[in-house]
Amino acid sequence: MRSGTCVLLAILAAGTAWAVDDSAAIQSVIEAQLAFTQVPGAAKINPEIYAPDAVCIWGGLIHRKRESLVAEFEKYRKQAEKDFASCKFTLDKLEVRVTGDSAWATVQLRFEATTKEKKEVITRLSWSTFVFTKAGNSWQILHEHNSPAPLR
């Protein structure tokens, strides 16, 4: 049993030793996604950051497939433009692990917004996990789960 565990650990260690550190490329995919939600001046949504069969869970709702995700971002941004004078998400903490053509990241996000009507400032933290797959030379989001923290 012991030798089997050692062999398994050696195989896993060898596999990850050859992985290229694409942490910066993965961070740029996450930052591109966050730029979609910024008000004013949101970036145009690039659906290619998602794998065709991506699954994302935001606020307890499950969104499947790239087209559905892009449509949800468009709805979110339109609602944000109605409700907020400004809003943006920023990365507070990021940890990335790359293994061959797969990677995962854990992220702490900070949401900051100013309401239009009351000029009230809202700050909220949330935590996200991402699973990525490499398609050619690009990283794509295959799975994302976001859990907001309670309002303060």
Give a summary of the structure in a few sentences.
With 152 residues, this protein is an alpha+beta fold. Helices cover 31% and strands 45% of the residues.
How is this structure best described in words?
This protein is an alpha+beta fold. The protein has a single domain (21-148), classed as Roll (Nuclear Transport Factor 2, Chain: A), CATH 3.10.450. The protein has helices at 2-17, 23-35, 66-83, and strands spanning 50-58, 61-64, 84-99, 102-115, 121-135, 138-148. A six-stranded mixed β-sheet has the order 2-1-6-5-4-3. The longest helix is centred in the middle third of the chain and has 18 residues, at 66-83. The radius of gyration is 18 Å and the shape is globular. The termini are far apart.
Q: Biggest β-sheet: count, sense, barrel?
A: 6 strands, mixed
The pLDDT mean sits at 82
Low-confidence stretches: 3-18
Number of folding domains?
A: 1
List the helices and strands and how they pair.
Elements: H1 2-17, H2 23-35, E1 50-58, E2 61-64, H3 66-83, E3 84-99, E4 102-115, E5 121-135, E6 138-148
Parallel strand pairs: 1-6
Antiparallel strand pairs: 1-2, 3-4, 4-5, 5-6
Which keywords apply here?
152 residues, alpha+beta, Nuclear Transport Factor 2, Chain: A, 6 strands, 45% strand
